[in-house]
Predict the 3D structure of the following.
Amino acid sequence: MMDDEQIREAFEIAKLISSEQLTAEEAARLEAWKNRSAAHRQLVTENTAAPVVREGLLQLETYDTHRIAADLFEAAGIGADKLPGRKSRLVRLRTWWAAAAMLLLMVGAGYWWTQHRAPSATMATNNVSTLMPGSNKARLVLPGGEEIVLDSTGNGLLTLQGNVQVQKSANGQLTYEGNNGEDIQYHTLVTPRGGRFQLTLSDGTKVVLNAASSIRFPVAFSGNTRSVSITGEAYFEVAANKNKPFIVDAAGSRIKVLGTHFNIMAYEDEPVMKTTLVEGAVMVEKNTQQVKIVPGQQATLRSGSDAITVDNANLDEVLAWTRDEFIFKSQNIRTIMRQISRWYDADIEYQGDVADISFSGGMSRHEGIQHLLELLEADGRLRFTATGKRIIISRKAK
């Protein structure tokens, strides 16, 4: 992590690199910085600044760039009056935003170029076009076992379950409206690898389902509780109702809430289950263990254990998928590739031991798989070979 002085210097150098004309003093300052390391010399003398800034600007388009820049400008002691309006398109901005993009690339604040290494040779690929980014795809399983494939079904009324209407909208969302009295019927929404979907339950609770996930829920809630169960990963914005606690069962644990925003990650192929709280309060239970967490905290349950640990969470990283982003902070390559596998419907194979390799970075989940793998390979430690749906990962020879 950079301290304030390093951030200030990075911003200053970014400004100098992106400037069209320098004073004698500025040129001397840039020359001194350039001579401090081979990486600095490469950045300036090999004319890499312009394409790096352009790539940085494209990457930044997928983030809340106004907020990022505001934080960085404050850290660098630069007046807020230099910031453009929030609605301005990033690619139309000039010197200050170019400097911000360069800074982010230089300090590794959420991007792949954290080691200042030159890109390696193009990764070995064959037919990676079969690995497309995920999209709004899911199937709805009705009480009798009938299935509705939602990505190939028209919008509007899908089915009538008692007094409850099930509507599908154009933006990949199901909405349940009405009350079914005491007649409890359950639906299950299932996303495949490479899919995601949104759901509004009959009580107004909003759910976003990540790839390779499912949620089983009543068409309408009755009784004294509102209970659902999930596999995989889901983000909840629970409608407040102090008289009816909302309960989520996942991976043998139970999460109880009244009205709150939280994320549950409970994939079977992950070694841990994580409940992360954004707003409100939740209780996480596993057999006799019970832990209450507050906003910004994360409760972790390791497979095969009842022990619940609580730590502070990085909400940007945890919730990145809900914004269709990948964000990794010192994540092991196997953890990263499990996410990539689910989103791009890819099969991953490892040749040799790569367990000690981690990355920090981020990009849009709308990007093609080849671009993502090229960015990872540019780090210089791993080679990615893709054929069809299979991605083979191996260490590069030193």
Notes: The first strand starts at residue 125 and ends at 126. Residues 4-18 form the longest helix (15 residues).
